[in-house]
Amino acid sequence: MSYKATPYNFCPVCGYPLQTSIIDTLPRRTCPECSYVHWGDFSLGVGGLLWHDGKVLLVQRGHNPGKGMWTIPGGYVDQGESIGTAIVREIQEETGITARPLSIIALRDRPTEKHDTYVIFLMEFMGGNLQAQPEEVSDLGFFTLEECHTLPIPALTLSALQASHSASQGLVLNPDVDLIGPLSTLYQMP
């Protein structure tokens, strides 16, 4: 998906007209009145690999981009929401299944016009019944790895499925480190 950011003309903090300044050798939109700097456009997404009884949970996308493709459930992280909370919410909304994050097993970094980062979690099944969110999901189900190879699946999803099937653990949440900020979380090797 291509995204072309429209440059800011006015400061989102104080409303003063922005100017272009060179910071760290790059042109950046800055405010001469309040010192605001526009560092760029970013998006953060999450996806969840949920294995249950030897099968993985997949959803069929109900809209573009990728309409008809099978992928892991996921979506965007809301401002003020942790990535762990976001993936639990996205899986529940899209599939009706309750799950909890076990570890981070992959990270896709796509620094295009809008810097796009996608964190993939290995999840644990907690309960619930399959129920597709009609606004986003046209179908869903649990599939074996062999069945996944017969479905139209993006390369990123298939690669993460294969890695999760053989990996026991990735980066895990460490709640014992005192971090700055009430929503801060640290994922690290066990």
UniProtKB/TrEMBL annotation:
Q: Which residues form the Nudix hydrolase domain?
A: 41-165
UniProt-listed Pfam families = NUDIX (PF00293), Zn_ribbon_Nudix (PF14803)
Molecular function as annotated in GO:
hydrolase activity
Which cofactor(s) does the record list?
A: Mg(2+)
Record's signal peptide:
none
List the CDD domains hit by this protein, alphabetically. Answer: NUDIX_ADPRase
Q: Please indicate if the UniProt record lists Translocase as a keyword.
A: no
Name the PROSITE patterns for this protein.
Answer: NUDIX, NUDIX_BOX
Q: Which of UniProt's keywords are assigned here?
A: Hydrolase, Magnesium
What does the sequence similarity comment in the record state about its family?
Answer: Belongs to the Nudix hydrolase family.
Q: What is this protein called?
A: ADP-ribose pyrophosphatase
Q: Which species is this UniProt entry from?
A: Desulfosporosinus metallidurans
